[in-house]
């Protein structure tokens, strides 16, 4: 491999000849070699920040028109690259300095070297020009807020899609009666539509929680520079940058925020990820319900039929497994673990700056991406094609002992319990045991024990 020499304040470094990065990136590439690469959404957000900063600095008379145009052109061309091509010049890992300085400098260096392609005499410098009026301490958390906001909005769309798919099932099966279960034991009947309505409401609440929280990601710490005082950033710079970023992302970002808070704390990301954790908890419950109700087909509940998306076993022919539910539950457990990581990392805002920034945003984006993908798969590849086994549901209702609850208002709790116990003990139906008890007639039993009526499906909830 051929190399060129690049220099920084620590000396000279050999850099691969074709690489767009410079000395600081090369040092980091060797000093920090562990873990995943910095997420590309963060890189793209930093490129947008550099583009907006060059525009603002030009308009405010802080850098020359020629240099500004070169920086704008370089950032624009880099942003136009597909992910696989863009990744080539951004080789740094998440586990680096806690401020994200190496990644910020990676972006600065790549833009500066890109300008040389247009004009070998450009004179654009990574620190003095591309990073003008900025610090890693304010650009990186600005990128964090932007990428988190975008990721959450995408997740909200996936959750709404799942709600819509479940609502179809709720309506389709509003009159299909099944046995309810509490404590994993038989309970009174409900319709499958009612059961699904509970899932829908859970997700609607989760969606509302996220919507109520995600505006906390609109505050951008840009303009705070090193410690929040705004040293070396001219008046109007932060507002101009935030305005351009708002147009690019079609989001109402604002630079009107406490910069000391923006550098030292990541409360917004922390609280929003709490919403992701809550969503994950509810998704885990829903997915578990679906896969247990679909268990069988001969030795399980067998109340639901799920799509056969792929062979379920490498040894057992004809097996169908709830793979989409399993993927979703695995993602949910990962998100719960990620919430602990973010909670601890967000607490480490020592003095003027939190130094866990890269792991906070990488973890947040992983959670959002996992949920967006698995929720979409669960909706499209399982819920959409799911049907009920109505005969099996009717069979379980007919043989359940807990429909005896409907007799309690007429003959009392104690007498009703004796009937259920007798039916269980003697292996008879509840109806046979009730008539044999002498407490009710066959006609009374048929009138009072009406599973569909017991669901109160036409009654509005008080």
Automatic annotation (TrEMBL):
Annotated active site: 183, 313
Domain called Fumarase C C-terminal: residue spans: 404-456
Source superkingdom: Bacteria
One Pfam family of this chain: FumaraseC_C
Pathway: Carbohydrate metabolism; tricarboxylic acid cycle; (S)-malate from fumarate: step 1/1
Subcellular location: Cytoplasm
Catalytic function, reaction form: (S)-malate = fumarate + H2O; L-aspartate = fumarate + NH4(+)
Domain Fumarate lyase N-terminal: 11-337
Residues the record marks as site: Important for catalytic activity: 326
An example Gene Ontology CC term for this record: cytoplasm
Keyword Cytoplasm: yes
E.C. number: 4.2.1.2
InterPro entries: Fum_hydII, Fumarase/histidase_N, Fumarase_C_C, Fumarate_lyase_CS, Fumarate_lyase_fam, Fumarate_lyase_N, L-Aspartase-like
Molecular function terms from GO: aspartate ammonia-lyase activity; fumarate hydratase activity
GO biological process: fumarate metabolic process; malate metabolic process; tricarboxylic acid cycle
Keywords: Cytoplasm, Lyase, Tricarboxylic acid cycle
Keyword Cell division appears in the UniProt entry: no
Binding site for substrate: 99-101, 135-137, 182, 314, 319-321
Role: Involved in the TCA cycle. Catalyzes the stereospecific interconversion of fumarate to L-malate.
Subunit structure: Homotetramer.
Further facts: There are 2 substrate-binding sites: the catalytic A site, and the non-catalytic B site that may play a role in the transfer of substrate or product between the active site and the solvent. Alternatively, the B site may bind allosteric effectors.
Family: Belongs to the class-II fumarase/aspartase family. Fumarase subfamily.
Protein's recorded name: Fumarate hydratase class II
